[in-house]
Design a protein that fits this description.
The chain is built from eleven helices and eleven strands. The longest helix has 15 residues. It has a single domain, classed as Metal-dependent hydrolases (TIM Barrel), CATH 3.20.20.140. α3 runs parallel beside α4 and α4 runs parallel beside α5. The strands form three sheets. The protein has a six-stranded parallel beta sheet with strand order 4-5-6-9-10-11. The chain has 301 residues and is of the alpha/beta class. Bound molecules: zinc ion (ZN). Zinc ion binds next to loops.
Length: 301
């Protein structure tokens, strides 16, 4: 008996990993991309280099009901303004789930983070440890993590070592599972989404999820369409761990995995990662959790 695979239209979607920046920063990021990433990933050409207002119209038209507003400050002096921008942006985009950011190099980072989480009612904060110069367990962040726990907010971090060459992190990136474990020992009750399923340290992050009830993973960029030839096949989770381990983990921990796309920083069509996930042929309940239910609960929607 052959089982009919599920179709995109069988599910509702919340995208836990999307980026929206002010126009000027978007432009700076696009040009940084061309200079820094293209030499590593020659086939990577972002196709959604659009202003934020066009991006939201498109993603809603694709059938995604809600989506996060991840942005980040790669250096001090930017985060407070970014949070203000996100607050304004979400006023005109009610389906956006507001996330702020913070940089411990700012003297007032606790104040503006608190403003974002309380007055602005942001659902959480994003830290992009690939491009910032601090680790997640940086002592300066301790009062921030404590505040997030007290306020029951969600932290989204890029904590794993991907992307890089030969499964090594980009030189200088303040990432890796050891740093994350040091943080987790200090703050075991905080809610955290680890982006990209923790790649390339998939197994180590899977184990953390199996042992720590507040840790979640998002699927962004982990299943790109193969025709994009974006990442070497050896880097895929199924190749690193074996398909069986990956599929049984996704099924048994489906309540801790969130669909994320990394839109608009993607060089292929928005829905193609959904199609790739559907090819994994998980159960209907697992897909409902991953595509919608988990985010609905975690983001209080
Ligand atoms: Zn991202």
């Amino acid at each position: 008996m052959t089982i009919e695979p599920f179709k995109r239209s069988d599910f509702r979607y919340i995208d836990a990993h999307t980026h929206f920046f002010p126009e000027k920063l978007f432009k700076a990021i696009w040009s940084y991309w061309d200079r820094v990433y293209i030499p590593f990933f020659p086939t990577w050409k972002n196709i959604y280099e659009w202003p934020a207002s066009e991006l939201t119209a498109f993603i809603e038209n694709e059938g995604t009901q809600y989506y996060t507003t991840l942005n980040y400050a790669h250096k001090p002096g930017l985060a407070a303004n970014l949070n203000d921008w996100t607050f304004e942006f979400c006023k005109t985009n009610p389906n956006a789930i507001p996330f702020g950011t913070a940089h411990p190099g700012d003297d007032d980072f606790l104040e503006y983070a608190e403003k974002a989480l309380t007055e602005y009612q942001f659902r959480g904060l994003k830290l992009q440890l690939m491009v910032t110069d601090f680790f997640i367990h940086d002592k300066r962040l301790d009062p921030l993590h404590k505040m997030m726990k007290d306020l029951d907010k969600v932290l989204i971090v890029h904590a794993g070592t991907a992307p890089g060459i030969d499964q090594q992190p980009v030189p200088g990136a303040k990432v890796g599972v050891d740093a994350f474990k040091t943080y987790l020992d200090k703050f075991p009750d905080n809610k955290v989404i680890v982006a990209h399923m923790g790649g390339y340290e998939y197994e180590k992050f899977f184990k953390i999820v199996e042992q720590s009830p507040n840790i979640y993973l998002d699927t962004a960029m982990v299943w790109p369409p193969p025709e994009s030839e974006l990442f070497p096949e050896e880097d895929a989770p199924g190749r690193i761990l074996g398909d069986e381990r990956v599929l049984s983990f996704m099924e048994s921990c489906s309540n801790r995995i969130l669909f994320g796309s990394d839109y608009p920083f993607i060089p292929f069509s928005y829905g193609s990662q959904i199609d790739e996930l559907l090819k994994l042929q998980l159960s209907k309940g697992a897909f409902e959790n991953i595509f919608y239910n988990n985010a609905k609960g975690l983001f209080d929607l």
